[in-house]
Q: What sequence folds into this?
C-alpha cells in the first residue's frame, strides 16, 4: 500500500512576521506587508518597496548555543531557513538533536537516518558590501569606469593578495545547498537531502520530492519547503532587469500596486521569507500523536516552453493556455485520484506580472472550465510579495492553514478583476474546504502543483 | 511490478574532448588536459591552472538555426546542450514521434552561470564609498541599471539550463535543477531514476553541467585552500590517493544521459546501454566544512544503492570475485576526501574492499564540480561496455591511509572476466553523499 504523507508542522517567516500565528493573523486581517524597504536606500530601483521580514532578527535565536558561531557564515537565506526549520519542528512538537539540550539522554522522534531535508533555494548573491570592500583594494581604471585588477587580486607570485580581503569560508556562505546543510546539521537529519533551485517553483518541487522520498520509504519525516531573500541589491536588480518589478513612484502601499490577473498591473514586488514544513509518513505521525494540518494528496510537475521569456521576447498574446502549467495541474489531479470538480480553492502563483498571470489563468480555464468562477483564488502576492524560493513553502503553509481552520483569509486587490474569477478584494470567512490546489511557476518555465487534503 | 530503468543515450563535453569514444581512449591512455588558465588573467594566482574545455562550438552539435536560439546561454548551459544533443541522438530521441513530450522531463544538477564580470565589477566599484567604507545603494542601483544586461543576468540563474534543455529537446515532463555542490549531478540522475520508476515519466534527460573557471569561482576555492597549488607541475597536480596530494584541480564540462523505462525503450527498438539498479542519498549532518571522520554518510549512501540493487557487499560470485566490479571514486585529491572515502569503501565491503578496483578520473579530467558525477557515471558505463577500467594517474607515493586498488597509472584490462556492476560516488560540501549503481543490461 502507498505510504501517505501528512503535514504536521509549519514554520514561516515573512513580511507578516515570524511564526505561523503572525502569518495567519496578517492574512486574516487583509494586511499587506509591502512597504518601503528599510534595509537599504532602494530609491535607485524602479521599485523601492518590498515585503521585508522586518521583525526577523536573525538565526541566532533559533540555533543551539554550540552552533551560534556558525551563524556568521550564513547568508540571510540560510538564516531564514534555519529559523523556519526550528519554528516548524517546535510547531510539530518533533524532538530532534536541535531541540534537545546537549548531552540529553532523551530520544529523538526519529532516528537520524530516517529524517530527510529538501529545502528549495535561490541563486544567493554575495553580499555587496563584503565583496566591494575587497574589490576596492584592487581597483584600476578611470573613476567613471573602474575595473578589477586580477593581477593584484592574486595571492601567488606577483599578486598583491587582494582576494585575501574575503574571509576564508566566503564561498560556503553562498552555496545554495547551505540552507539544507545547516538544517541537517542542527537537527541531525542524515537521510536524503536535496536543494532544488528552480526560482519560484523551488519550494513546491521540494515538497513534492519530500513526499516521494517518504512514499518510497527512504525517510519517515522531512524538512521541506524553501527560503530566500531577493531584497538585496543583486536580487532586486535582476528582477528589475527581468521586467518583473512594479514601478513604485511615490506610492508606499505595495498592496495596491500588486494586482493579480489584472492586465494593467505594473508588476510584482519582492518579498522574503521562509516556508518550512514538517512532512511525515501518516502512520508514523499518528503513532506519535501528532496534529495533522493536511495530507499531501497529489503532486505534479512539468516544464513550459519558456525560452521566449528567458530571451526577453515576451511579445504575443497575453491570454492563452500554457500547456506546461496545465500539465502540472493535471498530473497533480491524477496523482491524487481527483478531478477538477474536487478542488475547493486554489493558492495560485499570480504575482501580478500580467504576462505570467495570463498564462496561468489560461491553464486554469483549460482545466476547470466554467467551474473556475466558483473556485476561490487565494492570492498571496499583494500581501507578502513574490518570495522567490520561499513562495512554495509559504503557499503550501497557507493552504494547510485554510484546511485546518476551514476558513479562507482576506484577499487584497486594488484593481480591475476579471468578473468571472474569484480574485477580487474579499474580507475572508469560513468555508467548507476538502481539497486545495497550490501552484507555482518560475520565470524559467518550471511548474509544480500540489494538492492538499483536509485531515480526517 | 517495479519498473526497470535503463540508459539509452549519453554524451559529454570535457577538457579532454567532446565525444565519448575519443575521450574514453584518452582516459585509458592516462592523458590529462591541465594547463594554465586562459579564460582570465590568473598568472599571479596561487592556483593558476585548470582543466579547461577547448575548441568547443555549439554549432558542432546543433544545426545553426537551433544553435542560434541558445547562443546567449552561459558557458555551462552550452556544454549541457551539446552533451544532451549527443545523448538524444544515441537514444534515437531525435526521430519524430520517439516520445510524448509531457512524459519526458529534465532533471539536472547544473551550476549557476558565470557572473557577467565587466559590468558586475564596475557596478560594485562605482557603488563603493571608500571614505565611509559602505555601499551607496542608490549609486550602485543606478550603475547596475545602466551597465548590466537583462539576458546575461537571467542566464546565471541555476534553472536557466533547464529552460534551454526543455526548449531544445521538447520536454514537458517533471523537471528540476538541484545544486548539492559536487554531488549534484549524481543526485539529479538518482532522482530522475526514481521519477521513472514511480511512473511519473517514461524517460528523463538528466546529468549536470558546470564551469567555475571564472574569477570568483576560483577565488572561492583558493580561499578555502581546496585546490592544488602545484604551480611548478600542473600536469601532475591532480594526485588522488597519493600521499603528496594537495587539493583538486578545477575542471569544467557537462555529462548528460537519457534514462528510460525499459519497456518504453524496447517498444521503440532502442538498445539499453546499461541498467540503473540502485541509488543512495544521505547527509553527513556534521559540519559545513568537514566530512564525518568515519565516512558513515558516504558508506550509508553506498549501502542504500547496493540494497536497492539487491547486492550484498559481503558476498562474492562462485569464483570468489566481489559482486561490484568497479567503483568510480569521488577521489578529489584532497587529504580529507581520499582518506575518508577509502575508509567508507572498507566499511561497506569489508574484507573484499582491496579486491575492488577503485579509481579517480579526476586525476585526468580535473574536478567538473556539479558535472563530475554525471561524467564519472559515464566512465562506469564505458567500463561495462568495453571491459577496460580507467586508471588513477599521478599515484606514485602510496599513502598508508589509502591502501585499496586505485588502478595506479595504467588502465586495467578486465575483458576476460567482464565488468558487470559499478558504483559511482559523489560527495559535496556540506555533507551531501550520493551513489548510483549501474549494471550490465540483461534481458
A:
Amino acid at each position: 500500500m502507498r505510504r501517505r504523507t501528512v503535514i504536521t508542522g509549519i514554520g514561516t517567516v515573512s513580511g507578516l512576521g515570524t511564526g505561523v500565528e503572525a502569518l495567519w493573523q496578517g492574512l486574516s486581517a487583509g494586511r499587506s506587508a509591502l512597504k518601503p524597504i528599510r534595509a537599504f536606500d532602494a530609491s535607485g530601483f524602479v521599485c523601492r518597496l518590498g515585503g521585508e521580514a522586518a521583525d526577523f532578527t536573525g538565526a541566532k535565536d533559533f540555533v543551539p548555543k554550540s552552533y551560534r558561531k556558525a551563524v556568521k557564515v550564513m547568508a540571510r537565506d540560510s538564516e531564514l531557513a534555519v529559523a523556519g526549520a526550528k519554528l516548524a519542528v517546535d510547531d510539530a512538537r518533533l524532538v530532534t538533536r536541535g531541540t534537545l539540550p546537549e548531552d540529553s539522554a532523551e530520544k529523538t522522534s526519529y532516528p537520524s537516518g530516517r529524517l530527510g531535508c529538501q529545502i528549495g533555494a535561490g541563486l544567493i548573491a554575495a553580499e555587496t558590501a563584503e565583496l566591494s570592500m575587497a574589490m576596492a583594494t584592487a581597483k584600476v581604471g578611470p573613476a567613471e569606469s573602474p575595473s578589477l585588477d586580477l593581477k593584484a587580486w592574486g595571492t601567488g607570485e606577483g599578486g598583491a593578495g587582494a582576494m585575501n580581503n574575503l574571509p576564508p569560508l566566503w564561498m560556503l556562505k553562498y552555496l545554495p545547498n547551505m540552507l539544507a546543510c545547516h538544517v541537517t546539521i542542527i537537527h541531525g537529519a542524515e537521510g536524503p537531502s536535496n536543494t532544488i533551485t528552480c526560482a519560484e517553483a523551488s519550494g513546491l518541487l521540494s515538497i513534492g520530492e519530500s513526499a516521494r522520498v517518504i512514499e518510497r520509504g527512504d525517510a519517515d519525516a522531512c524538512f521541506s519547503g524553501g527560503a530566500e531573500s531577493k531584497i538585496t541589491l543583486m536580487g532586486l536588480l535582476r528582477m528589475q532587469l527581468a521586467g518583473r518589478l512594479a514601478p513604485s513612484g511615490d506610492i508606499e502601499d505595495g498592496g495596491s500596486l500588486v494586482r493579480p490577473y489584472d492586465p494593467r498591473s505594473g508588476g510584482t514586488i519582492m518579498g522574503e521569507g521562509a516556508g518550512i514544513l514538517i512532512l511525515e509518513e501518516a502512520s508514523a505521525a499518528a503513532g506519535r500523536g501528532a496534529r495533522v494540518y493536511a495530507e499531501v494528496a497529489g503532486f505534479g510537475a512539468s516544464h513550459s516552453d519558456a525560452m521566449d521569456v528567458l530571451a526577453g521576447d515576451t511579445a504575443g498574446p497575453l491570454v492563452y493556455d500554457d500547456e506546461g502549467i496545465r500539465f502540472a495541474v493535471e498530473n497533480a489531479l491524477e496523482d491524487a485520484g481527483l478531478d477538477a470538480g474536487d478542488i475547493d480553492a486554489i493558492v495560485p502563483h499570480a504575482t501580478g506580472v500580467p504576462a505570467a498571470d495570463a498564462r496561468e489563468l489560461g491553464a486554469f480555464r483549460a482545466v476547470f472550465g466554467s467551474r473556475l468562477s466558483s473556485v476561490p483564488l487565494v492570492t498571496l502576492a499583494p500581501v507578502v510579495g513574490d518570495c522567490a524560493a520561499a513562495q512554495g513553502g509559504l503557499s503550501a503553509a497557507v493552504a494547510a492553514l485554510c484546511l485546518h481552520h476551514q476558513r479562507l483569509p482576506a484577499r487584497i486587490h486594488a484593481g480591475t478583476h476579471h468578473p468571472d474569477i474569484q480574485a477580487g478584494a474579499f474580507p475572508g470567512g469560513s468555508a467548507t474546504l476538502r481539497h486545495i490546489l497550490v501552484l507555482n511557476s518560475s520565470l524559467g518555465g518550471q511548474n509544480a502543483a500540489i494538492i492538499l487534503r483536509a485531515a480526517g | 511490478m517495479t519498473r526497470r530503468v535503463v540508459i539509452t543515450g549519453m554524451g559529454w563535453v570535457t577538457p579532454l574532448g567532446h565525444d565519448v569514444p575519443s575521450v574514453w581512449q584518452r582516459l585509458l591512455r592516462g592523458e590529462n588536459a591541465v594547463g594554465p588558465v586562459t579564460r582570465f588573467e590568473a598568472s599571479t594566482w596561487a592556483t593558476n591552472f585548470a582543466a579547461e574545455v577547448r575548441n568547443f562550438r555549439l554549432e558542432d552539435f546543433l544545426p545553426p538555426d537551433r544553435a542560434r536560439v541558445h547562443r546567449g546561454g552561459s558557458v555551462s548551459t552550452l556544454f549541457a546542450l551539446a552533451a544532451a544533443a549527443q545523448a538524444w541522438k544515441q537514444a534515437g530521441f531525435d526521430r519524430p514521434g520517439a516520445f510524448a513530450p509531457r512524459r519526458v522531463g529534465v532533471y539536472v544538477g547544473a551550476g549557476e552561470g558565470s557572473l557577467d564580470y565587466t559590468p558586475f565589477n564596475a557596478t560594485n566599484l562605482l557603488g563603493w564609498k571608500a571614505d565611509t567604507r559602505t555601499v551607496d545603494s542608490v549609486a550602485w542601483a543606478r550603475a547596475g541599471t545602466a551597465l548590466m544586461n537583462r539576458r546575461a543576468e537571467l542566464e546565471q540563474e541555476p534553472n536557466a539550463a533547464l529552460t534551454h534543455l526543455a526548449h531544445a529537446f521538447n520536454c514537458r515532463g517533471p523537471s528540476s535543477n538541484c545544486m548539492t555542490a559536487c554531488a549534484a549531478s549524481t543526485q539529479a540522475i538518482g532522482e530522475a531514476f526514481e521519477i521513472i520508476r514511480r511512473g511519473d515519466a517514461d524517460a528523463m534527460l538528466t546529468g549536470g553541467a558546470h564551469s567555475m573557471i571564472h574569477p570568483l569561482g576560483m577565488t572561492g576555492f583558493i580561499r578555502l585552500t581546496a585546490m592544488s597549488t602545484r604551480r611548478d607541475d600542473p600536469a601532475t597536480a591532480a594526485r588522488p590517493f597519493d600521499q603528496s596530494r594537495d587539493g583538486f584541480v578545477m575542471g569544467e564540462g557537462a555529462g548528460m544521459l537519457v534514462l528510460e523505462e525499459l519497456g518504453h525503450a524496447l517498444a521503440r527498438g532502442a538498445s539499453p546501454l546499461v541498467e540503473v539498479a540502485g541509488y543512495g542519498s544521505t547527509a553527513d549532518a556534521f559540519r559545513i566544512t568537514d566530512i564525518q571522520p568515519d565516512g558513515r554518510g558516504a558508506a550509508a549512501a553506498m549501502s542504500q544503492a547496493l540494497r536497492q540493487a539487491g547486492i550484498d557487499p559481503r558476498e562474492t560470485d562462485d569464483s570468489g570475485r566481489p559482486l561490484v566490479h568497479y567503483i568510480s571514486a569521488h577521489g578529489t585529491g584532497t587529504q580529507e576526501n581520499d582518506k575518508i572515502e577509502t575508509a567508507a569503501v572498507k566499511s561497506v565491503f569489508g574484507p573484499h574492499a582491496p579486491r575492488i578496483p577503485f579509481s579517480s578520473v579526476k586525476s585526468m579530467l580535473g574536478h567538473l564540480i556539479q558535472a563530475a558525477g554525471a561524467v564519472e557515471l559515464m566512465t562506469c558505463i564505458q567500463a561495462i561496455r568495453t571491459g577496460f577500467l580507467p586508471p588513477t594517474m599521478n599515484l606514485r607515493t602510496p599513502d598508508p591511509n589509502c591502501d585499496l586498488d586505485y588502478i595506479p597509472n595504467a588502465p586495467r584490462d578486465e575483458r576476460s572476466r567482464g565488468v558487470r556492476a559499478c558504483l559511482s560516488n559523489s560527495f559535496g560540501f556540506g555533507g551531501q553523499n550520493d551513489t548510483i549503481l549501474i549494471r550490465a543490461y540483461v534481458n
Notes: Chain B has a mean pLDDT of 97.
